[in-house]
Amino acid sequence: MDVAQVEGDEEFRQELRSFLERHRPDKAPKDSAGRLAWQRAWFATLSDHGYAAPAWPKAWGGMELPLTQQLVYHEEMTLAGTPGHPAGNSSIVGPTIIVHGTDAQRERFMKPMIRCDELWAQAWSEPNAGSDLPALATRAVRDGDHYVVTGQKIWSTRAQICDWAFALVRTGTPESRQNGLTYLLVDLRTPGIEVRSIRDMTGSSHFSEIFFDEARVPVANRVGEEHGGWRIARTSMGHERSTSHLAADVRYRRILAELTEVVRRAGLAGDPLVRQRLARLNTDIRLLRVNGTRVLSNVLQTGEPGPSASISRLYHSLFEQRLHEFAVDVLGLHGLLDPRDPHSVERGRWVYGFLVTRASTIGAGTAEIQRNTIAERVLGLPHDPAGPGGPDPTPPA
Questions:
Q1: Does residue 63 belong to any structural domain of this protein?
Q2: Are 291 and 2 a contacting pair, CB within 8 Å?
Q3: How far out from the chain centre does Cα 46 lie?
Q4: CB of 153 within 8 A of CB of 215?
Q5: Which DSSP letter does residue 88 get?
């Protein structure tokens, strides 16, 4: 199951470590605006020195690394504790534009995306079309060289700080379901578009609603053919659920070590039930690594992550919840404190994580959707004709 190191991997690792020693960013600012600027500056530094977008073609500003060096890249960035992307949807829409977009679209969007000069939101889910995405109702009517878009999107991650969105809209009849969807790239500064933040139970605003009131989107911003958006969206979802988690075990080994120290300080290191739960979490991390390797093997063989990416996505989300449920249990009464409470442990990081991960089994495809994909495409069970995608879903690209 392991992916063998190939010639050049170790040299690349040392080269990357040398770069990180010279350019590692300072400590993150505490205020949200300062943190956003800090994150954007880091990705601009990566791009300007040729260390951004490890999988993307060099022609569009990426590194075009072989798969084993992509894994080295993610591992070293994780070990160095470098800033995360301020709006990670670039890793979803970028590969989609590379595969399905036009040269003009790649020329216009890729390099500003890589530098974080422009941030992207996802505009798919709607109040009445979340898990059943083919039921979405936001309309796009062709009017000359533009589509006139009217409708509402919801649960768009960090859309309030983004410049652009990749949207699925209905260009066919409501009965056409997935066969009547079109994939558009939308400038969120367009007249007729309003973005409203949604305050969640952490006290923050990770998500937003996007309202379209006869907003005009150029036809030139359509990816692929009209009514062909479902197939393109499946490409996006495949990338969302695959390589982004390949180095997750590196990060979680560090987090588990930090949580083990919390256990020691709480005087629970000798408790057999606590030790058993720690062992389970350690096993989870090893399984994340094994399945991540399986996904990587699929990409090496076929160029696509395949349905095993759904296994990774489901297991990852369940693990995140188990990890933070355990952390809150260890904290005892301190686990009831709001993250902003001055008496919270480690500035409330574990409680905050517990609250945030309530959504882990919803985002990027619900746990139920992932289980359906695993059942049908990994285990070979019959397709559910009443499920999302209808009786004859288009296979993933």
A1: yes
A2: no
A3: 20
A4: no
A5: B
Radius of gyration of the chain (CA): 22
Count of domains forming the chain: 3
Check if the beta carbon of residue 150 is closer than 8 Å to that of residue 190. no
Q: Are residues 221 and 252 in the same domain?
A: no
The mean pLDDT of 271-277, rounded to a whole number, is 97
Domain limit, last residue, from 173, 202, 226: 226
Contacts of 344 (CB under 8 A, 6+ apart): 334, 337, 338, 351
Kindly report, residue by residue over 74-102, the tens digit of the pLDDT.
Answer: 889 988 989 988 988 888 899 899 999 99
> How far, CA to CA in Å, does 319 sit from each of 71, 256, 281, 325, 336?
21, 12, 8, 10, 21
Angle at 53 between CA 51 and CA 55, to 5 degrees: 115
Active-site position among 76, 126, 209, 240: 240
Asked if 67 contacts 32 with a C-beta cutoff of 8 angstroms, the reply is no
Residues 347, 315, single domain; the answer is yes
What letter does residue 4 receive in the DSSP assignment?
P
Task: List, in sequence order, every residue forming a beta bridge with 93; answer none if it has no partner.
Answer: none
pTM: 0.82
Tokens of residue 262, six digits: 């919390």
Q: Quick one: tokens of 99?
A: 């595969």
Q: Is 261 an annotated catalytic residue? A: no
99 is a domain residue: no
Q: What is the CATH number for 354?
A: 1.20.140.10
- At 224-254, the pLDDT tens digits run 999 999 989 877 665 544 455 566 778 899 9
d(CA 231, CA 389): 11
